[in-house]
Specification:
Keywords: Cell membrane, Membrane, Transmembrane, Transmembrane helix, Transport
Subcellular location: Cell membrane
CATH class of the largest domain: Mainly Alpha
Structural class: mainly alpha
Number of strands: 2
Strand order of the largest sheet: 1-2
Organism: Evansella vedderi
Strand content: under 5%
Protein name: Peptide/nickel transport system permease protein
Number of helices: 14
Pfam families: BPD_transp_1, BPD_transp_1_N
Radius of gyration: 24 Å
Number of domains: 2
Length: 304
Amino acid sequence: MTYIIKKLFQIIPVLFIISFVVFIFVNVSGDPVVLMLPEDASNEEIKAMQESLGLDKPVIVQYGLFLSNVMKGQFGQSFVYKQEALPIVLERLPATFELMIAAIIISILISIPLGVLSAIKRNTFIDLFISGTSVLGKAMPNFWLGLMLMLVFSVYLQILPVSSRGSLLHLVLPAITTGTAMAAELTRMLRSQMLDVLHQDYMRTARSKGLSHFSVVYKHGLRNSLLPVITLIALNISTLVGGALVTEVVFAWPGIGQLVISAVHARDMAVVQACIFVIAIFVIGANFLADILYRVVDPRIKYR
């Protein structure tokens, strides 16, 4: 419990750093007042708007005001949607969570059997085929894979919806597109870990007890190979978020990714700030959850 409390306190300075970085990027991106007012606005109108937003104050004072508002959950008003930015982002959050969780599940369902099979069939044609496919899966860009899947399954075969969000069928292609790269990396990692585990003494002991091959491999071998896999999933959450941004645009998925892309194009900085903070908190939370899962997978681990 002490370890968990310490980890929670470590999140606070990380959020402060993120808030500073976001503030700096917003300030160097240009004056938002120019975008909020019409092109024929007078200098007096621009100055009045700057004063109302606190943009006429020194930078350090502006950061203090920004930090104070962030702690209250206030990121400002979107000049595109004419409402507070955070509710707009939170409204899109379930769609992004749905896509990312589905992508993680698909990547696990693909990588575990392929990684184990590749390790068991080491240096055979099956191993070479799985390894080559993993390299190919990691190398394919998300937008290209999404378009190809859309072309095959939606246009030619007409068995899956093209885009948008609705039933579970709408989720299949975006989830596969987002999870393919992670599945490829997890397969290679799991193969490497299983090759180390299969030759351990406790594995030979399990075989000598007369346990079935399935029980030896999956109950004893796989469980002891999962810790690096959990670490890799946690570290790839940020990459998964980046992939989801592209996927949401390709499939018109109404999540945070599509929102942040449109906000960047419109320079709606209030929405961009809220999106970055929500994504940062999600990534930090995922890594925190991975630390807890270590103990669940391997009770021998002691937190100090």
